[in-house]
């Protein structure tokens, strides 16, 4: 059945845009990263250790430069630089209000723009993350509903929003307590359930216990991820 909206809500699958062919680590699960490292030339006997090292530098320390990964051999760091990238969205504009609310207009590598908002409160900080560029739904309360759907955001582009917000909030290395960003809601541009596979993959990375470690709900951890 056709879901109401401007166009079919399931765009043609696409790969993450890249200007040089390197793979964005933010779009990989730990299992996928291990496989990609082996394919890039990391000896299989080292792959598990290298995966843990890279994952820790990226998602515990927020490192974007392979040269800064001090516990990895120089030749391996060179190999990583040749095959991978640790990306962030391009920031078109960034605004901060008097109450600490932050709003970013972001741009993808293929020049599509989308938004992200951080809303602080007395006991939490909520990040509103986009899952699509545009939307097929026509909710009257939402300006995005006046736009057509351009495409789904990739897992790397979704995770990249969280990483960029943590950069801006000074949350590296990952704090054990006192986080500013405590909650994620999929309430930015787009309908997350129309981009389910990419959203699921991205949030699995965000919730990974060896990385950013946001919980899927508030029952086990005070740092939950919520779907709208």
- CATH T-level fold name of the largest domain: TIM Barrel
Rg over alpha carbons: 18 Å
Number of strands: 10
Q: State the share of residues found in helices, binned by percent.
A: 25-40%
What is the CATH architecture annotation of the largest domain?
A: Alpha-Beta Barrel
As residue ranges, the low-confidence spans are 1-17, 218-224
User: What is the CATH class of the largest domain?
Assistant: Alpha Beta
Name of the CATH superfamily of the largest domain: Aldolase class I
Helical stretch count? Answer: 5
Biggest sheet architecture:
6 strands, mixed
**N-to-C series of helices and strands:** EHHHEEEEEEEHEHE
Give the oligomeric state: single chain
Tell me the fraction of residues in β-strands, as a range. Answer: 15-25%
Distance between the first and last residues' Cα = 23 Å
> What does the overall shape look like?
globular
**Rounded mean pLDDT score:** 85
Tally of separate domains: 2
| Structural class estimated from helices and strands | alpha/beta
- Enumerate the strands of the largest sheet in spatial order, edge to edge or round the barrel: 3-4-5-6-9-10
Features:
228 residues, DNA polymerase, domain 1, 2 domains, 6-stranded mixed sheet, two-stranded parallel sheet, 5 helices, disordered N terminus
Structure description:
This protein has five helices and ten strands. It is α/β, with parallel strands linked by helices and 228 residues long. The chain folds into two domains: 63 residues, DNA polymerase, domain 1 (Orthogonal Bundle), CATH 1.10.150.530; 137 residues, Alpha-Beta Barrel (TIM Barrel). The chain has a six-stranded mixed sheet, with helices on one face. A hairpin with a 4-residue loop joins strand 5 and strand 6. The two termini are 23 Å apart.
């Amino acid at each position: 059945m056709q879901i109401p909206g401007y166009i079919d809500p399931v765009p043609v699958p696409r790969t993450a845009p890249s200007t040089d062919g390197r793979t964005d680590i933010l779009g990989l699960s730990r299992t996928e990263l291990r496989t990609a490292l082996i394919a890039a030339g990391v000896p299989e006997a080292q792959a598990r250790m290298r995966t843990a090292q890279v994952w820790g530098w990226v998602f515990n320390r927020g490192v974007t430069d392979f040269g800064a990964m001090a516990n990895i051999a120089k030749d391996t760091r060179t190999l990583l630089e040749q095959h991978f990238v640790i990306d962030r969205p391009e920031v078109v504009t960034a605004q901060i209000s008097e109450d600490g609310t932050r709003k970013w207009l972001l741009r993808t590598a293929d020049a599509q723009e989308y938004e992200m908002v951080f809303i602080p409160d007395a006991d939490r900080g909520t990040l509103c993350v986009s899952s699509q560029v545009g939307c097929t739904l026509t909710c009257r309360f939402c300006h995005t509903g006046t736009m057509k759907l351009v495409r789904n955001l990739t897992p790397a582009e979704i995770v990249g929003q969280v990483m960029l917000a943590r950069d801006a909030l000074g949350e590296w290395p990952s704090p054990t307590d006192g986080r500013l960003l405590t909650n994620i809601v999929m309430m930015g541009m787009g309908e997350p359930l129309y981009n389910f596979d990419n959203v699921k993959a991205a949030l699995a990375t965000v919730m990974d216990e060896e990385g950013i470690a946001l919980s899927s709900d508030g029952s086990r951890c005070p740092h939950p991820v919520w779907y709208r």
